[in-house]
Amino acid sequence: MKRVIVAILLSLTAVVTGTAVLAQPSRTPHEDPAAAQGSPDKPALLLSYMSVFDLAASRRYDDARRALAEIDKVDLPAELNYIMDRYNQLSQELFAGLDHLDAALAEISSLIDENQLAEAGRRLDLAQIAVDRNRFLYREIETATGVLLEVMGVFNRPDTRLADAYRRLEDSLKRLQELIDQLNELRQSLALRNETKGAGLAPTAVSLAVSVEAARLGDFFEVRGELSSGGEPLGGRRITIAIQGRETGAVTGPDGSYAAPVQVPFEYVSAMTLGAAYRPAGDDAAVYQGAASPPVILKTIFYDTELSAVMPGNAHPGYPVTVTGEMPAAKGSLSREIRVILDGILLARGPVNGQFSLDVAIPASAAPGTHRLRVFIPAQGWYASAVQEAELAVSRLPLEASLDAPGVSLIPGEIRVSGEIRGALTPPQDAVVGLEWTGDPATVRTGPDGSFAAALNAPFRLSVFNPLELTATIQPVEPWYEPIELRRSVFALNPIGAGLVLIVLVLLGTRLFRKPGVIPVRPAVLPLPDTAGEVMAPAPTRRALSGRKARVFAAYLVALGAVERVSGRPMEPFMTIREYTEWTGGLPAVASFKELSQLVEQALYSRHELEETTIRRAEDIGEAIRQELYVPAA
């Protein structure tokens, strides 16, 4: 939570100094929300408000409102939520009120300069109401500040960082109050200026009348009126006539009357406001007050434009869609222009008078997501504009692809790869396929049917068995398709390395299983055991085995050689494996050797294929016996 407040302070600092910073999230992504809500950095929060109030006190009202909106995003514990919402609402209202009052006082000053004293007086009355409203909001903020500080426990810890932040916030609020007082003083000075100036100037009056109650857009109509002062006509004075902010002029005759043609502007509203004003100029500025007529309302006549458009709900970047619809014909209608706009970008335009159909190409750069599609008919002459909008979901389509490669390959050598891609809308053509294996990457392009093929060279590796991965990255040319990546496992075998390993194994086996000198057996006649159902030991010239059985038998031979060397009792040809195991029962490793003997019997005569776990157990036992009998204990 502390990092959140620090981020807001950095944002406020950027607003004050004019330095651009990146927007920070309202809560750091790796921060626990529960922990964030439970431990807000209260001093930093108060300092954030201090910065906001300082912006407002310097009349940077928009910046203050934006900064306050950032604070409003902070997650707070329940006891602070309500008071903070109220605090932010009051502050936003005060900033808007100060902004409005500041602008109104500037306009009043201009009216006084133009001798528009009556209008200035009316607006000064409104400014007084605004001042009172701003003072009320400030008092409410002071009250809310007290409640906020009480909840935070500021008054219970006067010597902490929290108390220091409170004092700085208090100073900022005082500066804000000074601004409110300054604006009120400005209003008072303008009122005094308006009153003083009005005391030495003769009041004037101007009237305004129109020749029609309603008029079509673009038509001309006549306005008339009179200018007088104290009942006496004022001739030769310029009158300004305004309609919807557009001004035209007329000059009064000797009898103080004036008349002028006024054109109805092409603004498609049901009614317009007219007004006439007299602004003293030259010598008149020292003699007469300005005057403004009461407003006159003129009804306008124009035709609405009906539009009924059918827009797609889904689209894909770069792929065209069709927008259809109808603009029902109206009396005296003419050919109009229709525009299709996506997120403010014009995509298509064309004439329309009745039904229409437009093919619209969605920009290839359109990002996946929700966009705003707009069908717009601009206003023309007496006809108003028409618009219809809808959300458009833009997405890229997935490709269907296959990648064919051999499961086993020899290295060094060449591997041939092929594949095919298919699309839902159009056949993907000329797509870039990037292939990576153990060697240099290769790039190919798909043909008209979406297929591709390539030959990849693999470098030499010392390892005999190499499980490798083949990767194909497909980048379609069509922007409406999504790139895709395929992976395939290839088992690469090194025959040269395999031969070297075989030679080493043969040499090692020759050395390991070379028998020591024959030690004579004690001269005793041993009875021949009943070997029914037992397995005879293999002869010294062992028969060749392969596969998993060979691995078990090799483990047994390693252990047998160790037992023969240590016991001095070589296995005789007439002995069974089980018999020899019992004969060497006094050795330390006899239990393990007995288990290994059982495993080799199972390997030699079982009809079922051995499991990998059984083979690994035999290898582990053989290695353990070899180390125990050959390597002395530390």
Write the SSE topology.
Layout lengths: L1 H16 L15 H6 L3 H16 L3 H11 L6 H36 L3 H36 L8 H39 L5 E2 L2 E2 L3 E3 L3 E10 L2 E2 L4 E6 L2 E6 L5 E7 L7 E8 L12 E2 L3 E6 L6 E3 L3 E2 L4 E7 L9 E7 L2 E8 L2 E7 L7 E9 L8 E9 L5 E5 L3 E3 L2 E10 L9 E5 L5 E4 L5 E8 L6 E11 L8 E10 L1 H18 L34 H21 L9 H7 L6 H16 L6 H19 L4
Parallel strand pairs: 3-11, 13-19, 21-27
Antiparallel strand pairs: 1-4, 2-4, 4-5, 4-8, 6-7, 6-9, 9-10, 9-11, 12-14, 14-17, 15-16, 15-18, 18-19, 20-22, 22-25, 23-24, 23-26, 26-27
Helix pairs in contact: 1-3, 1-4, 3-4, 3-7, 4-5, 5-6, 5-7, 6-7, 9-11, 9-12, 10-11, 11-12
What is the radius of gyration?
Answer: 48 Å
Into which percentage range does the β-strand content fall? 25-35%
Number of helical regions: 12
Distance between the termini: 58 Å
Mean of all residue-level pLDDT scores: 79
As residue ranges, the low-confidence spans are 1-38, 517-543
How many strands appear in the DSSP assignment?
A: 27
Structural class: alpha+beta
Principal-axes geometry comes out as elongated
- Can you tell me the number of structural domains? 5
The residue fraction in helices comes out at 25-40%
Biggest sheet character: 6 strands, mixed
